[in-house]
Amino acid sequence: RNIVLNNPRKRNALSLAMLHSLREDLLHDVKSKELRVIIISAEGPVFCSGHDLKELSSEDDVKHHSQVFELCAEVMTLIQKLPVPVIAKVNGLATAAGCQLVASCDIAVASEKSQFATPGVNIGLFCSTPAVALGRSLPRKVALEMLFTGEPLSAQEALMHGLVSKVVPEDKLEEETMKISHKICESSKSVLALGKATFYRQMAQDLDTAYKMTAQVMADNLTLRDGQEGIEAFIQKRKPVWSH
């Protein structure tokens, strides 16, 4: 599924309406056997500029502001709860909550011209919610430098520090993203869903608990039809036939 942020005139800001739309598109028919991977991209030179600052002006009350941030947090956490991998295809600037969106995706492929920043501190609104995703994707000191200074990371710096998975020339962005997507589609959906859920669950656990939990998950994985099919196919040196 391709989800395209399509309000370039407003730099694809995550307005309340955009967040509702993004949430709806992520959840739409999410249990369909046909859905294997979701790609989030954007129109225009800016991938996403973050929140719509006009919605955060003093004209709106605190209740409205809280609604914006709570919905944004819901969408970001939803990405990691979905049973299929979510790829950010970034071609341009991703700032504040836009940078948070990239950090929240399972995989991120960026063009060489892309940049990533959390500049809220420069306008008196520290990027505290983007910091949740950034602090879990980047080394702490790199994340804090971004948050304290608002200075952007280049695509290569973002790759070096782990914010994105790959950096390619702009004219190769679509090709590389589809290459990853097609590779994902070759695997069992049920196995990937189990693996994704387990990965994020164990990341929040201590080492001993994580190993105990994942050992049980691997045993459970073997009880799946696709788990047995994959092992038998490997032994027999043939291509597996997944249940989906």
TrEMBL record:
<keyword id="KW-0443">Lipid metabolism</keyword>
<comment type="function">
    <text>May play a role in fatty acid biosynthesis and insulin sensitivity.</text>
</comment>
<protein>
    <recommendedName>
        <fullName>Enoyl-CoA hydratase domain-containing protein 3, mitochondrial</fullName>
    </recommendedName>
</protein>
<keyword id="KW-0809">Transit peptide</keyword>
<dbReference type="Pfam" id="PF00378">
    <property type="entry name" value="ECH_1"/>
</dbReference>
<keyword id="KW-0276">Fatty acid metabolism</keyword>
<dbReference type="GO" id="GO:0005739">
    <property type="term" value="C:mitochondrion"/>
</dbReference>
<dbReference type="GO" id="GO:0006631">
    <property type="term" value="P:fatty acid metabolic process"/>
</dbReference>
<dbReference type="InterPro" id="IPR029045">
    <property type="entry name" value="ClpP/crotonase-like_dom_sf"/>
</dbReference>
<keyword id="KW-0496">Mitochondrion</keyword>
<dbReference type="InterPro" id="IPR014748">
    <property type="entry name" value="Enoyl-CoA_hydra_C"/>
</dbReference>
<dbReference type="InterPro" id="IPR001753">
    <property type="entry name" value="Enoyl-CoA_hydra/iso"/>
</dbReference>
<dbReference type="InterPro" id="IPR052377">
    <property type="entry name" value="Mitochondrial_ECH-domain"/>
</dbReference>
<comment type="similarity">
    <text>Belongs to the enoyl-CoA hydratase/isomerase family.</text>
</comment>
<dbReference type="GO" id="GO:0016836">
    <property type="term" value="F:hydro-lyase activity"/>
</dbReference>
